[in-house]
Amino acid sequence: MTTETFLSAAELVELTGFKSRHCQARWLDRHRWRYVLNRRNEPRVAREHFAERMGYGARAASHADAINQAAAMALPNFAALDRR
After folding, report:
1. Which among 23, 28, 15 has a CA at the least distance from the CA of 54?
2. What are phi and psi of 18, to 5 degrees?
3. In degrees, to the nearest 5, what angle opens at C-alpha 32 toward C-alphas 58 and 66?
4. Residue 80 forms part of a structural domain
5. d(Cα 42, Cα 70) in Å, to the nearest integer?
6. Crossing angle for the helix pair 9-16 and 21-30, nearest 10 degrees?
7. Which candidate, 45, 55, 57, places its Cα nearest to that of 5?
8. Please, what is the angle between helix 58-73 and helix 47-54, to 10°?
9. Exposure string (b/e) for 1-32, b if CB count within 10 Å is 16 or more?
10. How many structural domains compose the chain?
11. pTM for the structure as a whole
């Protein structure tokens, strides 16, 4: 596991606005972010989850594509009414 897997301590402070790990965890809980606690009870947020939540991850793009496809399929097929 590389150190790039999780947000750094400084990035977590920037995200939550709190330096205290207890307050960071409380903020993450309130905003429904997924995280794990390490051995020192410090919250760790995966970079992939951060990117997804902020709207520029691969999953976010595929989710938007799925929504657009579903919307396109929801349009009525008026061609089916032609009885020529």
Report:
1. 15
2. -125, 145
3. 35
4. no
5. 40
6. 50
7. 45
8. 40
9. eeeeebbeeeebeebbeeeebeebbebbeeee
10. 1
11. 0.64
Q: Which H, E and C letters describe 7-29, residue by residue?
A: CCHHHHHHHHCCCCHHHHHHHHH
Residue corresponding to tokens 């009525």: 76
Domain encompassing residue 17: 3-75
Q: Does a structural domain hold residue 83? A: no
Q: Is residue 84 part of a domain?
A: no
Q: How many C-beta atoms surround the C-beta of residue 43 within 10 A?
A: 23
For residue 33, which amino acid is it? Answer: W
Degrees to nearest 5, angle at CA 59 with 70 and 5: 170
Q: Where are the beta strands (DSSP E) in the chain?
A: 36-37, 43-44
**CA-atom Rg of the chain in angstroms:** 20
Q: What is the pLDDT of residues 2-40, one digit of tens each?
A: 558 999 999 999 999 999 999 999 999 999 999 999 999
38 falls within a domain: yes
